[in-house]
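Hi support team,

I submitted a single chain yesterday and got back a structure, but I'm not sure I'm reading the token output correctly. Could someone confirm the output below corresponds to the sequence I sent? I've pasted both exactly as they appear in my results page.

Thanks,
R.
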Amino acid sequence: MAAVKHAPDGYDLDVENSDTWQFCQTGAGRVVIVGPRSLTMHHLYDQEPTFNEVYEMVEGVDLILVEGYKSEQGPKVEVVRKGIDERPELGDELIAVVSDDHLQERVPCFSTESVEQLAEFLIDKLSLRK
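Hi R., thanks for writing in. Yes, this is the structure output for that exact sequence:
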């Protein structure tokens, strides 16, 4: 499994004045941080890569969880928090809802505490069982 989070307003990767932060500030197009159990590559672009370009970068996984990119095609699970988010309106691509409120939807609804049940649903719905 992999995860992609869209941050359309930008984000900060590193702590100000650290070595890697300074590399980015001075124009390094790519900065790679390597540790004993991880590797992170910060790649600077002149314009934001498309969803398909990001998708092509993720290899060797059966499932990619994506936060954001609501207008892109593909099955959707919407998270609706009571008093914060509005009811989902993602058309035919909506396959499930996760909420801390009791919602009646045309698709299965899972509580925020039902992570295992949601995972089982996704495994079956997306034919990921081996």
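A quick pointer for reading it: The first helix runs from residue 19 to 25. Let us know if anything else looks off.

Best,
Support desk
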